[in-house]
């Protein structure tokens, strides 16, 4: 079974031109540090030249010892000291500057990726695990960072050293150069065999790591439900399975890449043996000096070592390319379009749906020819069974999705021509599941309008009936909340959500049954706060309990994506239609 899986992975390897395209995109980010990078390249050229000069001077020093010329030896020894000191300094500074370039580049890329998340439609996030997306921001970019730190310099340095070594070796002895080059076909043949098996494994490893991160994030956020349903063993079993898949992918990626240093050691030893044997014969025949053989042996190492470095860096590069592909895949996602969109500073709140239909997957419509209008300041309740389309209507109104057919107008403007930011800035939401950010209560309320003053925060909390419970907390408005409001009750979360909506000063208010799952006293406080919030605003209310919307100006009754009835509570009961059936069925269930 494993062999079959192995064959499948190999067939999925990317063409070389795709790798080149990814490298070009990485270079586009590195190019922002162009001047510093050119300076580093200059130091790399200097260090490569110095590393080639060192062995040459060593060979000449040996020849001067054999020739018994002490003055020449001392001069060469002094030159060697200067060369290796300069080499050390150039290596230090090129690494120092390259690390800075790498970190700034990766920081820029991470920022671009994070900004991209805020420009993608909601549909993108519904298809992805948040942990898997987090893996791209952290693991994949960190993987690229480690490669930038070392690989860019190493590739240039190794290439220059390789070319320089060949030129110098040819000038010293074409015969010994030919001997050294005998290993090149063996090297490239072995590298091709290893690379064809390594690259798909690195890509699979990154994918499995992202999948595991997504699962871990899901388990941690859903820990309460897991414990309530006693599913700990099931979660551990699923983790073991995913962890085993990651281990298997990582094992083969590292196993194949581990062949590279072994191959290089074999070729290095083979090259040294050939040079020693043939060089000895040439020295015996007087065709080369002993110093030349020493120089050549060192240059052979200078030739093999860059190849070895390039081979090792190739593994790192393949892993980084796998991560870069996943990052660029997000950057290539289509953003929410804002072409020729209007920026409306103030809206009245008149809403009109004109024959709107919508489908999430282009296969099955969830809304069919929905047609209604809402006047400024009117409260409209949306009722109907689960899946009727209530939430979808509000997601279209807020432009999380756009209609498949028809138009939605606000103050006579097609919302497709209104900037999403401008539109949503004039809306506020009080939902059944309140999300609070990690931070102080003051910061969470101010999230509705960041420029609000401390006095406005307190006034909004008073209007939302939240001030009294806030002042009873240890640090009042400066009390720190954990993510999702850990430490306060569900009712208190709702009051903070109302305060956040109050401070936003919206023209359109969207409510999703904000009084569910709270005690009677808190429900009264919430209802009183909502009454203040809804005053003189256009309001859309998703109603789960029909007795809470009796005073709505109009009720839209939805069934299977269609508005089947609309009117006031009393008129709909008198009509004895679908609303009448829903109301009495719910009343009987409660009683």
Automatic annotation (TrEMBL):
Residues 38-319 form the ABC transmembrane type-1 domain. Its main location: membrane. CDD domains: ABC_6TM_Tm288_like, ABCC_Glucan_exporter_like. Residues 351-585 form the ABC transporter domain. The chain crosses the membrane at residues 37-58, 70-93, 175-194, 272-296. One of its GO terms (molecular function) is ATP hydrolysis activity. InterPro entries: AAA+_ATPase (IPR003593), ABC1_TM_dom (IPR011527), ABC1_TM_sf (IPR036640), ABC_transporter-like_ATP-bd (IPR003439), ABC_transporter-like_CS (IPR017871), P-loop_NTPase (IPR027417), Type_1_exporter (IPR039421). Keywords: ATP-binding, Cell membrane, Membrane, Nucleotide-binding, Transmembrane, Transmembrane helix, Transport. It is a multi-pass membrane protein. One of its GO terms (cellular component) is plasma membrane. It holds the Pfam family ABC_tran. It is found in: Cell membrane. It comes from the Bacteria. This is ATP-binding cassette subfamily B protein. It comes from Anoxybacteroides voinovskiense.
């Amino acid at each position: 079974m494993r062999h079959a899986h192995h064959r499948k992975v190999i067939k999925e390897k990317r063409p070389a031109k795709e790798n080149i395209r990814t490298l070009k995109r990485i270079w586009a980010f590195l190019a922002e540090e162009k001047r510093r990078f050119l300076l580093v390249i200059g130091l790399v050229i200097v260090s490569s030249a110095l590393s080639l000069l060192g062995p040459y001077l060593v060979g000449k020093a040996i020849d001067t010892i054999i020739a018994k010329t002490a003055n020449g030896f001392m001069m060469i020894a002094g030159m060697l000291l200067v060369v290796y000191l300069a080499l050390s300094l150039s290596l230090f500074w090129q690494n120092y500057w390259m690390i800075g370039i790498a970190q700034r580049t990766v920081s820029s890329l991470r920022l671009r990726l994070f900004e991209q998340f805020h420009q993608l439609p909601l549909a993108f996030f519904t298809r992805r695990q948040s942990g898997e997306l987090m893996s791209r921001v952290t693991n994949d970019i960190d993987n690229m960072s480690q490669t930038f730190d070392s690989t860019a310099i190493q590739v240039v340095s190794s290439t220059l050293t390789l070319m320089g070594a060949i030129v110098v070796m040819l000038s010293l002895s074409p015969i010994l150069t030919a001997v050294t080059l005998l290993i090149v076909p063996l090297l490239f043949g072995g590298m091709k065999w290893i690379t064809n098996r390594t690259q798909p494994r690195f890509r699979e490893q990154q994918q499995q790591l992202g999948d595991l991160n997504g699962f871990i994030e899901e388990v941690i956020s859903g820990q309460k439900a897991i414990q309530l349903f006693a599913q700990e063993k099931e979660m551990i079993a699923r983790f073991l399975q995913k962890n085993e898949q990651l281990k298997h992918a990582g094992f083969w990626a590292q196993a194949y890449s581990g062949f590279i240093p072994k191959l290089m050691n074999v070729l290095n030893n083979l090259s040294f043996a050939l040079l020693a044997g043939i060089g000895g014969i040439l020295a015996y025949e007087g065709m080369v000096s002993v110093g030349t053989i020493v120089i050549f042996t060192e240059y052979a190492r200078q030739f093999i070592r860059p190849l070895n470095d390039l081979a090792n860096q190739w593994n790192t590069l393949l892993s980084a390319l796998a991560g870069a592909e996943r990052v660029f895949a997000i950057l290539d996602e289509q953003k929410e379009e804002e072409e020729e969109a209007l920026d409306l500073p103030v809206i009245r709140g008149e809403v009109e749906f004109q024959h709107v239909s919508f489908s999430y997957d282009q296969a099955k419509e969830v809304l069919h020819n929905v047609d209604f209008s809402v006047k400024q300041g009117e409260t409209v309740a949306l009722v109907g069974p689960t899946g009727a389309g209530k939430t979808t209507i509000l997601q279209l109104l807020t432009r999380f999705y756009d209609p498949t057919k028809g138009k939605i107008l606000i103050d006579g403007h097609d919302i497709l021509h209104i900037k999403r930011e401008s539109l949503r800035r004039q809306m506020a939401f009080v939902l059944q599941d309140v999300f609070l950010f990690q931070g102080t209560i003051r910061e969470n309320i101010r999230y509705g309008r960041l420029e609000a003053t401390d006095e406005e925060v307190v006034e909004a909390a008073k209007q939302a009936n939240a001030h009294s419970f806030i002042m009873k907390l240890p640090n009042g408005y400066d009390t720190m909340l954990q993510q999702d409001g850990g430490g306060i009750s569900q009712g208190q979360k709702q009051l903070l959500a109302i305060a956040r909506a109050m401070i936003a000063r919206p023209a359109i208010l969207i409510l999703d049954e904000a009084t569910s799952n709270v005690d009677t006293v808190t429900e009264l406080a919430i209802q009183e706060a909502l009454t203040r919030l809804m005053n003189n605003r256009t309001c859309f209310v998703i109603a789960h309990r029909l007795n809470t919307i009796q005073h709505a100006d109009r009720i839209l009754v939805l069934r299977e994506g269609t508005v089947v009835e609309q009117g006031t509570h009393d008129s709909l009961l008198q009509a004895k239609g679908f609303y009448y059936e829903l109301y009495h069925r719910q009343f009987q269930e409660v009683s």
